[in-house]
Specification:
159 residues; two-stranded antiparallel ribbon; alpha/beta; NADH_UbQ_OxRdtase-like_20kDa; Rossmann fold; 28% helix
């Protein structure tokens, strides 16, 4: 029996995801186990983006828990915002939130998004995400691991 036979015999092999974490916030109305997420970089160093990419990649596979990245805020149930909010991104962030249909969630990802991180008093910084728009879910870390990102998304989808 060759490698094809072994694949047919074993099937898909993946890590056990474990129990779903305790919900930090309920899903928006209309979200039934599925969450369409739009990512917004408000002024980050791209560390969080690398980890979000890893969370949606083949190893952590956030889509198996019902979370999916979308290209337009008009198709999104939630925004995941990374980085401090810079002067040039404050209004585009508000516009993106306004373009996202209600009810919606805002997920602040990373220490910079939560408390300005290392960019604390930089001249081009307006503030943390919560100082510009209301935040529903927080993911701490610099940068947060893909496990933390997936866990936060699972707390919303309850899967």
């Amino acid at each position: 029996m060759g490698w094809i036979g072994r694949i047919m015999r074993l099937g898909r092999v993946a890590e056990n995801a474990g129990p779903a974490p305790e919900p930090t916030v309920g899903p928006p109305a209309g979200v039934r186990g599925s969450l369409q997420v739009r990512h917004v970089d408000a002024g980050s160093c791209n560390g969080c983006e690398v980890e979000i990419s890893g969370a949606f990649g083949p190893v952590y596979d956030a889509e198996r828990f019902g979370a999916r990245l979308v290209a337009s805020p008009r198709h999104a149930d939630a925004l995941i915002v990374t980085g401090v909010v810079t002067r040039n991104m404050a209004q585009p962030l508000r516009n993106t939130l306004a373009a996202t249909p209600a009810p919606r969630l805002v997920i602040a990802c990373g220490d910079c998004a939560l408390n300005r991180g290392v960019f604390g008093d930089a001249y081009g910084v307006v503030g943390a995400v919560g100082e510009v728009i209301p935040v529903d879910v927080e993911i701490p870390g610099c940068p947060p691991s893909p496990d933390q990102v997936v866990s936060a998304l699972r707390s919303v989808t309850r899967r």
